[in-house]
Amino acid sequence: MLRSDLRLALITGLGAGFGLLSPLDFGYYIPLTTAAVLSSSYGNSLNLSIQRMLGSVLGIVVLAVFSRGIQMPLPLALGLALATVRLLGGALGLQVGYKVAGNIVVMGWLVHEAVETSWGTARLFWTAVGIVLSLWATRSIWPSNSIPNQNQGLATLVDALSGEFSLEAERLEQDTPARLSMPSRRQRREALLRQLTAIRSQRESAQLELGVNPENHPLHELWSELDLLCSQLLSVLDGLRGLPAPIHSPAVIKALHRREAEVLRHLIVLLNTLAMDLRQPSLGEKQTLNLDTLSKLNRDLDAVSGQLMRSLERDTLQDHDAQAIAAARMRQIVLRASLIDHAASALRNCKPGMASSTPVTA
To answer: What is the mean pLDDT of residues 241-255?
Structure first.
């Protein structure tokens, strides 16, 4: 038995006990509500709760209008009332709520006609109590780990990317760097892609925890930005590893490679900080990263990246010794610097965690 099933049994039992002990009538609608709306995720429970509450209000209104305001034979009036429920339910986008409304119309008219008003009010009240109890249970009793798992998965992937860029920085700093073998490059790339694929496959369940409109939630925006960032950094790594090993001659090229390594070191610091923030347990509640620290590191990265490109344009390409380099090798030198600058710009453009959305609580 799943924990969500145990939670449903526990909350439904507690609701039934509370309803029976309450001096108010019709308390049995608490367990009926919890059984209908309490699911394994907060988002699904919230959606079902909204549907049930709207359906309950719709049913009570239609019942009052047709049973008291319109004088016609019962079969005809009941049929028109149910047709109205279906029509209005479709207009409101109710997928299951219209069934609740229809049930209220039938039960109120045929079973509770003598106490129709008090019954409808009591049912609406107990339905609201059951909804509140169900939503509280999804957040407090064995809550889903989908959101923390998504954050942890992204942190692990960012850490892995940081490690790969660290290898590239070391190669640029070595006097005689060696190029990674093709099997090693393929193995490393496939490992990163597996992580990214696993994160994407888990995202759907995590988004269910974000509420009715997950696409407007700050965490959804953060995950989308990080997904794009990781994809771009993977492309940069593929490009860098497709180039021959850097050669530190003449001196101006060696200086350029040192600047490239410096940019990568700043990139690594930023990625490590980002991964650390993603692992914070409070991220699910704050729904944002440490923007002050990330913004400062991003500005530092922009500064060294700008210096790299200015050095390439003003020093390297204009240097007399560099002009003697073969055209094919010079293209590779320019491409490597451009790829590293692109990695920096990917962070600048994605700005993970800096979405304009404000945190939400539901």
So the answer is: 89
Task: Tell me the pTM.
Answer: 0.77
Q: Which helix (H) or strand (E) holds 262?
A: helix 251-278
- What pLDDT does 357 receive? 36
Residue 95 to residue 23: CA distance in whole angstroms: 34
**Residue closest to 129 by CA, chosen among 252, 255, 18:** 18
Is 356 inside a domain boundary?
Answer: no
Instruction: State whether 75 and 51 are in the same domain.
Output: yes
User: Are 209 and 343 part of one and the same domain?
Assistant: yes
| pLDDT (tens digit per residue) in 303-353 | 999 999 998 888 888 877 777 888 888 999 999 999 999 999 998 776 554
* DSSP annotation string for 1-68: --HHHHHHHHHHHHHHHHHHHSSSS-TTHHHHHHHHH--SSHHHHHHHHHHHHHHHHHHHHHHHHHHH
Q: What is residue 145's DSSP assignment? A: -
Query: Which single residue is written with the structure tokens 């539901």?
Result: 362
133 and 189 housed in the same domain? no
Cα three-residue angle 128-129-132, rounded to 5 degrees: 85
